[in-house]
Design a protein that fits this description.
The protein is α+β, with helices and mostly antiparallel strands. It contains three helices and seven strands, in the order ββααβββαββ. The longest helix is centred in the first third of the chain and has 18 residues.
Length: 151
């Protein structure tokens, strides 16, 4: 034990780990790294003032060039009785593993995160990426679905 206080009665074991040191690997590390490279290239080429469709078109071209399997603008099935068809559309599903949601707006809002989380839950995926092309510096965000286990 090591004395870490002026109070003689307060002894603290300095050898105890303070944080959780369990090693956790990134989900789909290589694929998400490659996707992030595509996103940065797209942002560098188009700049920050293009719309989602323009960004999506260039991303699609780059995915084809890299031979990455994807689906674009896939509609989710209805989630409850009375919901209109084709209300929820995912921008990209990549390699049947990752949801990629594109935004071109001033700020990514909490509702945007909820949207991606809803998509992940609906199609039972573990990882979603959300990226805002309006930002001066691109900052893709990873969103995990804790209800899905991958092996």
């Amino acid at each position: 034990m090591v004395l870490l206080s002026n109070d003689a009665n307060l002894l603290i074991n300095a050898n105890l780990p303070i944080a959780n040191t369990m090693k956790q690997d990134l989900i789909y590390k290589d694929l998400s790294y490659e996707i992030t490279g595509v996103l940065f290239e797209t942002h560098n080429e188009l700049g920050r003032f293009c719309n989602e469709k323009q960004c999506g078109d260039l991303i699609e071209k780059k995915l084809i060039d890299r031979k990455i399997k994807y689906e674009r603008e896939k509609f989710l099935p209805t989630s409850f009785d009375g919901e209109k068809d084709n209300r929820n559309r995912i921008d990209f599903i990549i390699e049947d593993k990752i949801v990629l949601e594109l935004k071109c707006k001033r700020f990514i809002e909490r509702s945007d995160f909820y949207q991606v989380k809803r998509y992940l839950t609906a199609i039972d995926f573990k990882l979603g990426l959300i990226v805002n092309f309006r930002d001066k510096y691109l900052k893709p965000k990873r969103i995990l679905n804790s209800q899905v286990n991958i092996n």
